User: What shape does this take?
Amino acid sequence: MAPGLAMLGFGHIEVGTITPRPQAGNPKPRIYRLPKDEALINRMGFPNDGVKAVVSRLRAMNQVERPYVLGVSLGKQKNTALENAAADYASILEEVFPYADYLAINVSSPNTPELRKLQGSNYLGQLLDSLMAVNRVLSTKHGQAKRPLLIKISPDLSWPEVDDIVQTAIDKHVDGVIAANTTIERNGLKDANQAQAGGLSGPPLALRSTQIIRHISKQTNGRLPIIGVGGIRTAADVQAKVDAGASLVQLYTALVYEGPRLPGRILRELSNNGNVVNRQT
Ligand SMILES: Cc1cc2nc3c(=O)[nH]c(=O)nc-3n(C[C@H](O)[C@H](O)[C@H](O)COP(=O)(O)O)c2cc1C
Assistant: This one.
């Protein structure tokens, strides 16, 4: 799937979130359109084939030179206790290290019970310590550079919580932050499907995500790289994230509504507006 997505114009692709062992995710239906809001609500719960199966796909993808940057998103198994979560993340890092250009540490999905608690300083510091240590060992073992580790955060954090995470990220020498994941807020929506449980994505998330990016960028004087995500649908949405301090952007929901021509359209619009569009292809 990633090579096909890259052909649409994406310069980087993030796969996952994956867990150590296969898991089925939540019962279907587990994803809903909110057409009146151009939004989605999902409660997928990390359905995936487990790290071993994913590694064999990643290995096949890496047999040819890739014209795109590949990130892998790491999560914990639903039934792993928070106290043992670090071992889940570390074991995935060990397996995917040779094939991934960067790792997204997903501690912000609303669909795995308690996962978001890993953003709290009592867990996050320890999680990052153990991932950093494993990253160092793997770098030596493979004779390759350490992989950039980025924390993906929730848009539902308070400002003090964001500040705590940013401080921990800096203290632990994390490479960046991905802001933001889906929200459990339901403000200002029109569609009846807003009553569904799960994480909301798309335009209703755009402003909050941009505010978080701007806040982090200001707090860190732009020194902590930020991947901006949430409600991007147009070149203007990309520009808003970049102006707020994002150095890279991602989108998901708009692709569902707008279809495969969307990335090309955004890239053309950005370059017509005089932007230098950094593409791998
Ligand atoms: C169906 C669906 C599944 C998602 N699964 C994941 C996931 O496994 N891990 C993750 O970090 N984010 C996941 N997300 C969140 C997106 O990566 C993104 O942060 C969010 O949707 C906001 O961006 P958007 O408004 O462009 O969709 C998912 C989003 C959707 C719609």
User: Anything to note?
Assistant: The chain has one domain: 2-272. The beta strands are 12-18, 31-34, 39-42, 69-74, 102-106, 149-153, 176-179, 199-201, 226-229, 248-250. The two ends are 17 Å apart (CA to CA).
